Amino acid sequence: xxxxxxxxxxxxxxxxxxxxxxxxxxxxxxxxxxxxxxxxxxxxxxxxxxxxxxxxxxxxxxxxxxxxxxxxxxxxxxxxxxxxxxxxxxxxxxxxxxxxxxxxxxxxxxxxxxxxxxxxxxxxxxxxxxxxxxxxxxxxxxxxxxxxxxxxxxxxxxxxxxxxxxxxxxxxxxxxxxxxxxxxxxxxxxxxxxxxxxxxxxxxxxxxxxxxxxxxxxxxxxxxxxxxxxxxxxxxxxxxxxxxxxxxxxxxxxxxxxxxxxxxxxxxxxxxxxxxxxxxxxxxxxxxxxxxxxxxxxxxxxxxxxxxxxxxxxxxxxxxxxxxxxxxxxxxxxxxxxxxxxxxxxxxxxxxxxxxxxxxxxxxxxxxxxxxxxxxxxxxxxxxxxxxxxxxxxxxxxxxxxxxxxxxxxxxxxxxxxxxxxxxxxxxxxxxxxxxxxxxxxxxxxxxxxxxxxxxxxxxxxxxxxxxxxxxxxxxxx
Length: 478
Ligand SMILES: [Cu+2]
Prior knowledge:
This protein is mostly beta strands. The chain is built from 5 helices and 33 strands.
């Protein structure tokens, strides 16, 4: 760890530069009054959909370098109210990092909070010591760098805290951001790729606010079990913001960034859209759908076609809770045209499994377990051999929903509840899979490239209240 001067003049200056150079549809601080009042904290200061700043790296002797400061901040969710937040060089959430496959990168996080933190690259294929879990926590005033070579397909990943027992609260207060990986394949595809114009990041969350418009994170035992779902739904940190769309194909890179809420997404006019990517790669070909279910931490890229629909107004809607995430006005003439290809990529089947493992998700009274054990930072639960294909079956034994996330690599679903008819939009590379109450999934997984007998990766439920209360285990790759 490297000791840093706490909030030097230059780092303060850097914060304002970063938060002021966002996408052309508005920065995280760019909010104007408007909208209804769907939540508890006052009149939403919605206005235009904020687009996180796209942070391109600085080249330092061939290494692509990113500097990120984790800070206490205030954000305008409600008209005239400063809400206390945590953020990454912003007032809420953080910039989108743009990485390229093959790049040597160094992502340097500086902790300007008054509590320890760790920063995890969710979906990133990297060595265990660069994973940013509880084994790489860093104290207030210190920095930690994730240094590795990007070695995976184009996709939309994200960074967030992974601090032991504190992940849920730190994410809830606002620490998260997207990581976009591009490669030669994504370069060639005729996809919307003008960031903030026709390639739109969407971090979807829900929050509880008190009457003063402050974020409240005080889950009861019942809420830890059932999920800490707020009554205010937000997109990129704004309540029902408006996106002014070009009348063409628009790509949304959607992250369920909630703590524990499963979203069923669709458009208010019921229109069909096409999913083009799952968590860790493009789908082999686009999948037509009009509803998209995402559990916490899952990503989906979708393409919606507004060609010829100038003056149309609609909303991106959440159907489980009956909430509006984003109001969409098709109000701009297209500045370019794209035609979604029929074929996007080819995916590896990961071969035939030579080993199997079973994981049973359980728990009671707000304490959660995997195979009967709660997370213990001093216990390595599983040892996995490099280069061997395995099949893991994960069973949700409870009458509440869970999901299952593994670090280090992606997996491919082979069965849901014993049946091999996996939905077309789940046939891609995944790192997080939804497992509704009482259900089970089997996936094929193979560890590649990195071994470390001492430092483990983690697997866990990504409902953050469950993760923080024991539903996590550790594995090494040898
Ligand atoms: Cu869970």
